[in-house]
Amino acid sequence: MPRFADLAIAPPLLQAIDDAGYEAPSPIQAQSIPPLLEGRDLLGQAQTGTGKTAAFALPLLSRVDLSCKQPQILVLTPTRELAIQVAEAMQGYARHLSGFQIATLYGGQNISTQLRQLRRGVHTVVGTPGRLIDHLKRGTLKLDSLATIVLDEADEMLRMGFIEDVETILEETPKGRQVALFSATMPSAIRRVAQHHLNNPVEIKIKSKTATVASITQRYWQVQGLQKLDALTRILEVEDFDAMLVFVRTKVMAAELTEKLEARGYSSAVLSGDVSQVLREKTVERLKSGRLDIIVATDVAARGLDVERISHVINYDIPYDTETYVHRIGRTGRAGRTGDAILFVSGREKRMLRSIEKATRQPIQPMKIPSHADIADRRIVQFKQMITDTIEDQDLGFFEDLVSNYQQDQDLSLREIAAALAYLVQRERPLVPSEKEIQKDGAFTAGNWAADLGKSSQVPMQQFRIEVGREHGVKPKNIVGAIANEINLAPSYIGQIKFFDTFSTVYLPEDMPDAAVKHLKKVRVCGQQLKISVGAGGGGYNADHGKPSHKSGKRKHVKKQPRKAKA
């Protein structure tokens, strides 16, 4: 397997890849990046979810001229959702390209925002065919400096009736421009487009596995207010597992998650590209012998891992491609044994979930994360089993005499003595745990804080600043959705939002826990970390059930009114 560093990608992009902790390119990335860097046309056949965005974004961004504020890269996508997804990914890869600008153009968005972006000057445009043609007709999108056009999911654009629009746009591009066409299938209409508009293209075909081990039970949990670490902890509490393999995308996350699991008392170790071969072998041997129960791994580090004890595979981070998913879950259900695979999926990753189901030809069932009561029930069952096993396996004569003597001396019933002993045994790990114990050291959930808000008639609000603004294509729903989902906060407690070019301000409850603010700092919206902080010129106000006042800096009682977001 090549490394990203072997592919002649520009240093700022390599830095972004390294920041994220990515270890190795996927097959389509390894095969596409070299010819695209050379300026060759490319015809790629690959399923959704094979890592296509990085396959074209990394080489094309490596060649962008930042001094020329004219569109040099144009990416056509069939839907607005994919356009946003591609734009956010490219913005992330370009985070160390100083002054880089990207515009996302699609129908249903305020065209004045798009016009403002284009007037300011952009290096890359991502959009849907209809809106791109609209801008070409208006003369607001100039393609004189275009170096490359990418057709992403061309067969889907054909299915949606956009193929004529695509050809119209291709005719408007300069002669000699580079063309990269990606399609899951190659119907005759797409093949004709390729023959007419591509010049001696490099052809790449990525075959995805289409079957998984039938003995593996596959489930998914949709990430909501409850955070991943909390969800994983609850799963560890109630699932009957022998050994577990937890997959994350990056070596940075692998190290962090292992540390948090160890802090919670779980026997775990990390396998990533930073682990030496000697330590890897020792870790695998510990897993095989039963001295280790959980391994947190990256995809590269888990290659070739074959341990029959692994009963569960947790996809803590959803993989970028279906091939990787198949490889991951294949680490369980081996040698005729059954296995369990659980996938954590955010709302925005549902598309990948459907791609995985299509590629594997198997449904993945939704699951319910264990509740506080489920955990208590499970601990009680385990405690009872421990008593039964002890009675069957141990010589308890000495202790029977001890209890009998104590009962006579203290004039107590055996029931009282047994209850006291049971309390002592479970004191370090209570049979009925508190919510605080379940959530300790890491994941933030709104818990009692969010519940208490609902009991208050007046909620003091505070202005916060977030580092995402108009130039990033942000909308009110992006901010409301991210904050509400990440800290389990009802949208009614998210107040007035104001947008500026490079940042925005938003009113939130004044007494948010530090853990909530800390968590939101790392949350990304439109490819940007929020980096939330108390807003300059802050001040707060009282609101009925979180409904905002629209007068910044004043604290006053405000009657109920709908939440507004100013663009």
TrEMBL record:
<dbReference type="InterPro" id="IPR044742">
    <property type="entry name" value="DEAD/DEAH_RhlB"/>
</dbReference>
<dbReference type="Pfam" id="PF00271">
    <property type="entry name" value="Helicase_C"/>
</dbReference>
<feature type="domain" description="Helicase C-terminal">
    <location>
        <begin position="228"/>
        <end position="375"/>
    </location>
</feature>
<dbReference type="GO" id="GO:0005840">
    <property type="term" value="C:ribosome"/>
</dbReference>
<dbReference type="InterPro" id="IPR027417">
    <property type="entry name" value="P-loop_NTPase"/>
</dbReference>
<dbReference type="GO" id="GO:0005524">
    <property type="term" value="F:ATP binding"/>
</dbReference>
<dbReference type="InterPro" id="IPR050547">
    <property type="entry name" value="DEAD_box_RNA_helicases"/>
</dbReference>
<feature type="compositionally biased region" description="Basic residues">
    <location>
        <begin position="548"/>
        <end position="567"/>
    </location>
</feature>
<dbReference type="InterPro" id="IPR012677">
    <property type="entry name" value="Nucleotide-bd_a/b_plait_sf"/>
</dbReference>
<keyword id="KW-0347">Helicase</keyword>
<dbReference type="Pfam" id="PF00270">
    <property type="entry name" value="DEAD"/>
</dbReference>
<dbReference type="InterPro" id="IPR000629">
    <property type="entry name" value="RNA-helicase_DEAD-box_CS"/>
</dbReference>
<dbReference type="InterPro" id="IPR005580">
    <property type="entry name" value="DbpA/CsdA_RNA-bd_dom"/>
</dbReference>
<dbReference type="Pfam" id="PF03880">
    <property type="entry name" value="DbpA"/>
</dbReference>
<dbReference type="InterPro" id="IPR057325">
    <property type="entry name" value="DeaD_dimer"/>
</dbReference>
<dbReference type="InterPro" id="IPR028618">
    <property type="entry name" value="DEAD_helicase_DeaD"/>
</dbReference>
<feature type="short sequence motif" description="Q motif">
    <location>
        <begin position="2"/>
        <end position="30"/>
    </location>
</feature>
<dbReference type="Pfam" id="PF25399">
    <property type="entry name" value="DeaD_dimer"/>
</dbReference>
<dbReference type="GO" id="GO:0005829">
    <property type="term" value="C:cytosol"/>
</dbReference>
<dbReference type="InterPro" id="IPR014014">
    <property type="entry name" value="RNA_helicase_DEAD_Q_motif"/>
</dbReference>
<dbReference type="InterPro" id="IPR001650">
    <property type="entry name" value="Helicase_C-like"/>
</dbReference>
<feature type="region of interest" description="Disordered">
    <location>
        <begin position="537"/>
        <end position="567"/>
    </location>
</feature>
<dbReference type="GO" id="GO:0016887">
    <property type="term" value="F:ATP hydrolysis activity"/>
</dbReference>
<keyword id="KW-0963">Cytoplasm</keyword>
<protein>
    <recommendedName>
        <fullName>ATP-dependent RNA helicase DeaD</fullName>
        <ecNumber>3.6.4.13</ecNumber>
    </recommendedName>
</protein>
<keyword id="KW-0378">Hydrolase</keyword>
<keyword id="KW-0346">Stress response</keyword>
<comment type="similarity">
    <text>Belongs to the DEAD box helicase family. DeaD/CsdA subfamily.</text>
</comment>
<dbReference type="GO" id="GO:0006401">
    <property type="term" value="P:RNA catabolic process"/>
</dbReference>
<keyword id="KW-0694">RNA-binding</keyword>
<keyword id="KW-0067">ATP-binding</keyword>
<dbReference type="GO" id="GO:0000027">
    <property type="term" value="P:ribosomal large subunit assembly"/>
</dbReference>
<dbReference type="GO" id="GO:0003724">
    <property type="term" value="F:RNA helicase activity"/>
</dbReference>
<feature type="domain" description="Helicase ATP-binding">
    <location>
        <begin position="33"/>
        <end position="204"/>
    </location>
</feature>
<feature type="domain" description="DEAD-box RNA helicase Q">
    <location>
        <begin position="2"/>
        <end position="30"/>
    </location>
</feature>
<dbReference type="GO" id="GO:0070417">
    <property type="term" value="P:cellular response to cold"/>
</dbReference>
<dbReference type="InterPro" id="IPR014001">
    <property type="entry name" value="Helicase_ATP-bd"/>
</dbReference>
<keyword id="KW-0547">Nucleotide-binding</keyword>
<comment type="function">
    <text>DEAD-box RNA helicase involved in various cellular processes at low temperature, including ribosome biogenesis, mRNA degradation and translation initiation.</text>
</comment>
<dbReference type="InterPro" id="IPR011545">
    <property type="entry name" value="DEAD/DEAH_box_helicase_dom"/>
</dbReference>
<dbReference type="InterPro" id="IPR034415">
    <property type="entry name" value="CsdA_RRM"/>
</dbReference>
<dbReference type="GO" id="GO:0033592">
    <property type="term" value="F:RNA strand annealing activity"/>
</dbReference>
